[in-house]
Write a structure and sequence with these properties.
The structure is a single chain. The protein has about 300 residues and is α/β, with parallel strands linked by helices. It folds into three domains: about 70 residues, no CATH class; about 55 residues; about 140 residues, no CATH class. It is about 40% helix and about 25% strand. It has five helices and 24 strands. Strands 1-4-7-10-13-16-19-22 form an eight-stranded parallel beta sheet, with no helix packed on it. The protein has an eight-stranded parallel beta sheet with strand order 2-5-8-11-14-17-20-23, with no helix packed on it. Helix 1 packs antiparallel against helix 2. The longest helix is centred in the middle third of the chain and has 51 residues. About 5% of the residues have low confidence.
């Protein structure tokens, strides 16, 4: 039942039940038609809205059904066609493959960087070696060209040097040198030398030398010295022990305390009484042609 009908019935019942205070019925001055008219005036809009609402409920269901029926649904064929177009326009990238390619690219870049670092390090090492060689050559050239000076270096007793030793002056060795010794001046040895000795003049006194001795001037081997190596000089005086060949452009003097094991090649040889010699002696640097003396 609608709101308007219920209200009308309630109003009619209320009017009919009205009585006065004396118990008399109140005359119905208002008829049902008047009530209907008044109610329509007062609640006409409400009734119309209520009826419209009722009609709307029925119409809404019909409208919804018609919309659902009339609404176009997307077709699968259209979706497939759209996907095909998208597939043609876009390139599918497999994340796993892309990750592998990225990792490979990163590895290649790291290897390239590492190779570049190695190349740079090799280049730096080569440059350092070239610089060291150039420096050595320059120092050697300067050393060879420079004249001997008056400076005198002393390697004291108890001092040991491992490696080559060079000086433009003179040097006195009382300690131990494990390496080659080169000096422009005089070389005096009363200690131990294990290596080649080069100087303008060499003198040994109770020394122990293992290595060749080369001098532009004289070589003097004092008593008590032991030399194991060849001797080459312009002149030589041997008072100690020498095990090696002696090659001297000038005279050689073998003193009474000398012991020589090796060949002697010189201009002349003087052997004092008491000396011990074992080897061949040749005066090949003499000006005399020995072969011509025996020609008949």
């Amino acid at each position: 039942m609608s709101l308007f009908s219920d209200l009308k019935e309630d109003m009619s019942q209320a009017v009919n039940e009205l009585v006065d205070k004396n118990g008399k019925e109140v005359e119905e001055d208002i008829s049902n038609d008047d009530i209907d008219s008044e109610l329509e005036d007062l609640f006409g809009d409400v009734a119309s809205e209520e009826q419209a609402a009722e009609a709307t409920d029925e119409e809404d269901s019909e409208l919804i059904e018609s919309i659902l029926k009339d609404k176009e649904q997307p077709k699968l064929t259209d979706i497939d066609a759209t996907l095909e177009e998208l597939s043609d326009d876009a390139t599918f990238v497999d994340p796993a493959v892309d990750a592998d390619e990225s990792e490979d690219a990163s590895t290649d870049e790291l290897e390239d960087d590492k190779q570049d670092d190695i190349t740079k390090e090799d280049s730096n090492m080569a440059s350092e070696e070239n610089i060291a060689e150039e420096t050595t050559e320059a120092v050697t050239a300067e050393f060879d060209d420079s004249p001997a000076d008056d400076e005198n270096a002393v390697i004291t007793k108890g001092t040991k040097i491992t490696g080559s030793l060079e000086t433009t002056g003179s040097i006195e060795i009382v300690g131990i040198i494990d390496g080659d010794v080169t000096c422009k001046g005089k070389l005096t040895i009363s200690g131990v030398v294990k290596g080649t000795s080069k100087a303008s003049e060499i003198f040994t006194d109770t020394a122990n030398v293992t290595g060749d001795m080369i001098s532009d001037g004289s070589v003097k081997i004092g008593a008590g010295s032991v030399i194991v190596g060849d001797i080459k000089a312009s002149s030589a005086v041997i008072a100690g022990a020498v095990k090696g060949n002696i090659d001297v452009n000038g005279p050689v003097i073998i003193d009474a305390s000398a012991v020589v094991m090796g060949n002697i090649k010189s201009r002349s040889v003087q052997v004092n009484n008491g000396a011990v010699m074992e080897g061949m002696c040749s005066q090949s640097y003499n000006d005399i042609d020995v072969s011509s003396v025996f020609d008949v």
